[in-house]
Amino acid sequence: MRLALPLSLAAALAAPALAQRPGAAIDVLDYRFELEVSDQSDEIEGLATIAFRTLRPVAEVEFDLDDAPAGGMVVSSATLAGPAAEAAQAGRALRFRQQDDRLLVTLDREAAVGERRRVEISYRGVPADGFTIGTNRHGERTFFADNWPNRAHHWLPVVDHPSDKATVAFVITAPAHYQVVATGAFVEAIDLGVGMRRTEWRSRAPIATKVMAVGVARFVRHRQALVGGVPVETWVYPQDREVGLRAFAPGPRVLGAFERRLGDYPYAKLANVQTTTRWGGLENAGNVFYDEDAVDREGGIETLIAHEVAHQWFGDAVTESDWPHVWLSEGFATYLTACYLEWTYGRERFLEQMDRARTRVLSYAEEAPDSVIVPESVPDPRRLLSPNVYQKAAWVLHMLRGEVGDGTFWKGMRTYYERFRDRNASTADFAAIMEEVSGRKLDRFFDQWLRQPGVPELEVAWRFDDAGPAVELTVRQTGPTTYRLPLDVEAVLGDGRVVRSRVDVAGERTAASLPVPARAEELRIDPDRWLLMRYMVEER
């Protein structure tokens, strides 16, 4: 997910957060959402079929569903649905109540641990958030899901947390002059007469509610290419056909580049969709939504496309287990965007991208000196959106790559994806994979970069000693946090030769003597740009 440009963080943070619930009682396995929208009003009518298994004995199950007085969903019935073993009870009405953005459904009997049940929820209402009904930039009516991070419950009965992933189907009945794009693979479209059409899409890969999506609008649907058997499509407003097709042209190239490095793409399609999302881009699984004005962006949107497509692997297929670990989504997508530029255009483009990221990190470290990448808790996931989880987390991955080596790093990334595809992972899970593939203990690395605030601040003083001959240097850490760093330095000799050494910086003051064959005229710090830090160099 990328913040919209110009930055609209205040709007993004406006909605209240849904409180987290410890000790979930159910694990949702599948959703089927049958929804009807119209041009006559903003009210939607829904029938949700939810299949789940119980994680502990439970007589009442709980879903997140907005019941705000000023706008929300009103449930009319809850009934027991299949499977076949419950055929005698199928259709039986269940007691339910709505309170505090919760829908509580009393089962016909207490369910034992591991039991699989299914309920149907009929409801209607005007969504207060999460499903945006309005007009696009051409004044035409549109309907777009905008669920990130936990806004699906404003229009769908769900467990609205990234740890509960499920397969999903969207069955949308809408006026026939609209086209419908949604999560998963296309199933069917049926003209119902009287100007209405029912369209179904289904995802057989389990995903979190934050990346479930549906869009209803007048679209041009364009098939760009097949990449490894995956259809890459562009969905744009008819008025923006030409500019939209140009803007989204990099899609197949981006997908191919990530498949070669990370492994098979996890979804049935890659649709890049022009929408009214509040974000610059939103990484819905197989169904990326972009801000509608992005197609006009000067210089194109290749880096934005790369960021959102990278999320299909990390954030969508491998999903953070809880909000404090969101860097596993945003930091990965940010770093992989820079890597894509390197693979496609060369090392200088990569370094330019990382230098811009460094500038953002250093500036934010002054604004929020106590903030960390992985906090202990997150009362509101929207408050996580900062350069910490984007640019600083990207630098953590870059430094990890430098620490373990290029081949080991990419092996670790592929192993992490293979091991946790369609599942949830935590920071500890990722660290364990990297320790496994590298054969090294990395707890100090992850702890200092993810759970300590700020960045290293170094003062490097050096002089040439004829008696060695050697470069004598002292490194002082002046920031509030003391790091342990492998600091590469280059001594540039008078005849142009370069002598490289590594200094293990540990503690507030580190002294080192670096042998050189002749007089050193210059000392370069971190010449290959592997470290995130602020530093000064002084010759004495």
Describe this protein's structure.
- By secondary structure, the chain is of the alpha+beta class.
- The protein has helices at 9-12, 241-247, 251-262, 302-313, 327-345, 347-367, 388-404, 406-420, 427-438, 443-450, and strands at residues 26-36, 44-54, 58-64, 73-80, 96-99, 102-111, 116-125, 131-135, 141-145, 166-175, 179-182, 185-193, 196-207, 214-217, 220-227, 230-236, 270-275, 281-282, 287-291, 318-320, 423-425, 457-465, 470-477, 485-493, 498-505, 509-515, 520-525, 534-539.
- The strands form seven sheets. It has a seven-stranded mixed β-sheet with strand order 4-7-2-1-10-13-12, with no helix packed on it.
- Helix 5 (327-345) packs across helix 7.
- The protein is elongated, with a radius of gyration of 26 Å.
- The model is unreliable at 5-22 (pLDDT under 50).
- Rg, Å, rounded: 26 Å
Give me the secondary-structure category.
Answer: alpha+beta
Largest sheet entry? 7 strands, mixed
How many individual β-strands? 28
Query: How large is the count of helical segments?
Result: 10
Strand coverage percent: 35-45%
Nearest-integer average pLDDT: 93
Would you identify the regions where 5 or more consecutive residues have pLDDT less than 50? 5-22
Please state how the strands of the largest beta sheet are arranged side by side: 4-7-2-1-10-13-12
Distance between the termini: 47 Å
How helix-rich are the residues, as a percent range?
10-25%
Shape verdict = elongated
Concise structural overview:
The chain is an alpha+beta fold and 540 residues long. It has helices spanning 9-12, 241-247, 251-262, 302-313, 327-345, 347-367, 388-404, 406-420, 427-438, 443-450, and strands at 26-36, 44-54, 58-64, 73-80, 96-99, 102-111, 116-125, 131-135, 141-145, 166-175, 179-182, 185-193, 196-207, 214-217, 220-227, 230-236, 270-275, 281-282, 287-291, 318-320, 423-425, 457-465, 470-477, 485-493, 498-505, 509-515, 520-525, 534-539.
